[in-house]
Amino acid sequence: MNKIFPQGDGNGNAAAGTKALPGGEGDVPQSLPSFLMARCGDPTSWIYSDQKCDGINNCGDCSDELSPVTACPPCGPGWWRCPSTVFKYCDCIPRVLCRDHTQHCSDWSDEYSCPGP
């Protein structure tokens, strides 16, 4: 997730910390086409477009994975849909985490209902 900071004082002087770094903090890069970036639920945060609907909580608030900000397709064949207890995932967990004797879903379905990988 990247944070957007003020652009400067309006006189061409850049504010501190305005350089955009992948996975870091900084302004939305003006040199990137807008289709390469996606806004998070927090209007001061952004991610790269290919991070949307990838199953990972890139925005920190799941807005890149869940509606109303993002319309993602249902979990793919390698995923199990459940209310996740793991901050890294939002609505689905990788099936490799099923039946591993560790709770990853708040309803324990990853241990008792998920067929596994």
TrEMBL record:
**Keywords (A to Z) from UniProt:** Disulfide bond, Lipoprotein, Receptor
Domain of life where this protein originates? Eukaryota
Q: Where is this region: Disordered?
A: 1-28
Task: Tell me which residues make up the LDLRAD1-like C-terminal domain.
Answer: 73-112
* Pfam families referenced in this protein's UniProt entry, alphabetically: LDLRAD1_C (PF25241)
**What protein name is recorded for this chain?**
Low-density lipoprotein receptor class A domain-containing protein 1 isoform X3
Give me the gene this protein comes from.
Answer: LDLRAD1
